[in-house]
Write a structure and sequence with these properties.
By secondary structure, the protein is mainly alpha-helical. The protein is 71% helix and 2% strand. A two-stranded antiparallel ribbon has the order 1-2. Strand 1 and strand 2 form a beta hairpin. Helix 4 packs across helix 5. The longest helix is centred in the C-terminal third of the chain and has 19 residues. The chain is elongated and about 105 Å long. The N and C termini lie far apart (106 Å).
């Protein structure tokens, strides 16, 4: 129609391409315009920022022949926030103050986000304080910024000020404060904000309901999490994933499997097989691993094979499969899945090393570590926990010492309590108790109850009364222990040496401490049902039949022995 050269039409075309994230076409229209006004530059800079071309947005801002307006300032400052360009952002802040735009709400909100992204919380708070009457968006930016910068208390204080000023919170306000409660495991405040969500009618929405779910999960309140899940009117895939993950986090893996089964049955109502994503699979495989149920884990794996292209299986799902098979005792399947993974990250290698180590295949774990280094993946702290544990289970003392020393010398990784516990346990199992004691005495963890407990356990195993008594004294002197383990181990140590007065003394100390010994239990899977048997309890409905069967087996074994 020949109207493209008209400024109004060109601006609309430019804006249309920019809003559709087609920056190439938008830039072409912009370059071909014979005349451009402030709207043209504003649309182009805003489009570049919103499409992720932040450097291009700032380059256009620098070339612009007009004085910027509030919209251009907001877009340019937003680009600085993403690029963490604090120096350039401060210059824009100064220009916006001179031109009188800094107090306009969306300019000040962009400044707050920019300073928060650059970890300049005090500067963000100064902008917030100088902005006059703040909107809910300003409060939300402050709450989210403080949460991201690990200053949760200040975020909660802003919410309190917001309520005091009569500003009604919205879904983003509640998302921010509930997220803070999740990270700090502050259940009481979380319940308070849950009440706010109910009051505002937002608790039944998936957006807020999912955040409340996460909060209760992090606070290990699975009962409340289930209530919130049931109250969500239209559950999305995130709702299902969150409750499955919550069940695993709280140790109720059987409920996680039931929820997954319910999720699978909802296919006709919209959340069906096509909605199940990689996070769903990773979460339910973690539940299968927690139950050591290869039957359920194998079914999930089969479903993944049927519905996913093998080479495109997410690396997180692959890692979960390796972990599940390893924890179910099938290291062969775990290895097969690992070898078939098209892509592996550090977690993949760490999972495989730990799996081999837990199955007593220490030398193979070391081989996998060497392969990891060969492909250019650098180990982290978790890698060495797996290696030390592998050496521990396989009795590879020299290799374990070599890896422990290499952490600091070669990889500049400071050993943490988990590494030191593995080392002490490794030396203890190898009967090198004196060397283990020397490491303990020279370590910053010499008073840690986990380290001392590992050494005491080794002393009990090898009957070393002298070092065992020293460890027990240190353990009881430094810790008002709430566990019965030190007393039980010390009692067993005396019993091995026939020192019955010592046994009586250890049990007397246990009784005097007020600590109760937790009864041991075993889990077995029978026809898909997990059965739990606890020492000293005979409440199982088939207890009489089980006892008769055990008596028959004991008789049969005695007959064979004779």
């Amino acid at each position: 129609m020949g109207s493209q050269s008209e400024l109004l039409i060109s601006n609309h075309l430019l804006n249309m391409y920019a809003k559709c994230h087609d920056i190439t076409s938008s830039h072409q229209v912009f370059d071909e315009m014979p005349h451009r006004n402030l709207v043209s530059w504003s649309a182009m800079i805003s489009g570049c920022d919103q499409s992720g071309h932040h450097s291009m947005a700032l380059a256009l801002f620098a070339r612009m022949p007009f004085d910027p307006n509030e919209y251009i300032y907001a877009s340019a400052i937003s680009a600085c926030a993403t690029l963490l360009a604090i120096s350039y952002g401060q210059q824009l802040h100064g220009q916006s103050i001179k031109s009188g735009y800094a107090s306009i709400s969306f300019v000040s909100n962009s400044l707050i986000s920019m300073y928060m992204n650059c970890r300049r919380c005090d500067d963000a708070f100064e902008v917030f304080s100088m902005s006059g009457s703040s909107s809910v968006v300003s409060y939300n930016a402050m709450i989210a910024g403080f949460a991201e910068n690990l200053q949760p208390r200040r975020g909660l204080e802003v919410f309190k000020v917001m309520i005091g000023e009569g500003v009604v919170p919205d879904q983003f306000s509640l998302m921010g404060v509930l997220g803070i409660c999740s990270e700090t495991c502050d259940l009481m405040r979380g319940i308070e904000f849950h009440c706010w969500a109910v009051k505002l009618g937002l608790d039944s929405t998936a957006f807020i309901g999912n955040v409340i779910l996460t909060m209760y999960s992090k606070c290990t309140s699975i009962g409340e999490a289930v209530k919130v899940f049931n109250s969500i009117e239209y559950k999305d895939v995130i709702s299902w994933n969150t409750i499955i993950s919550a069940c695993s986090h709280c140790g109720d893996h059987e409920m996680g499997l039931r929820v997954f089964a319910a999720m699978m049955r909802t296919a006709p109502t919209g959340v069906g097989l096509m909605s199940i994503d990689d996070f769903t699979f990773a979460s339910i495989l973690a539940a299968c691993a927690g139950l050591a149920s290869i039957r359920h884990g194998g079914q999930v794996h089969a479903h993944i094979i049927r519905t996913r292209v093998v080479d495109l299986v997410d690396v997180g799902v692959g890692n979960a499969l390796v972990n599940m098979y390893a924890k179910c005792g099938n290291i062969g399947y775990a290895t097969s899945v690992f070898l078939r993974m098209a892509h592996r990250n550090l977690l993949s290698w760490n999972t495989m090393i730990a799996a081999l180590g837990n199955h007593g295949l220490g030398k193979r774990a070391i081989e996998v570590f060497e392969q990891m280094k060969a492909v250019g993946v650098n180990p982290d702290s978790v890698t060495f926990i797996g290696l030390l544990s592998a050496c521990n289970h396989s009795g590879l003392v020299d290799e374990g010492l070599r890896f422990f020393n290499a952490m600091k010398e070669i990889y500049n990784i400071c050993p943490e309590i988990e590494h030191f516990s593995c080392l002490v346990d490794l030396l203890g199992r190898a009967r090198k108790l004196k060397l283990a004691q020397e490491y303990v005495e020279q370590s910053q963890f010499k008073n840690d109850k986990v380290v001392l407990g590992s050494l005491l356990s080794a002393c009990r195993l090898h009957g070393d009364i002298e070092i065992g008594e020293w460890v027990a004294r240190e353990l009881l002197r430094h810790h008002e222990t709430s566990s019965s383990s030190p007393y039980v181990l010390l009692s067993s140590l005396y019993a091995v040496d026939g020192r019955w007065e010592g046994v009586a003394g250890a049990w007397k100390m246990l009784k005097g401490s007020g600590v109760k010994k937790d009864p041991g239990h075993s889990l077995i899977e029978v026809k898909g049902v997990i059965e739990k048997f606890t020492v000293g309890r005979f409440s199982h409905p088939l207890a009489e039949e089980i006892m008769n069967a055990l008596s028959s087996l004991s008789w049969a074994v005695s007959e064979v022995s004779v």
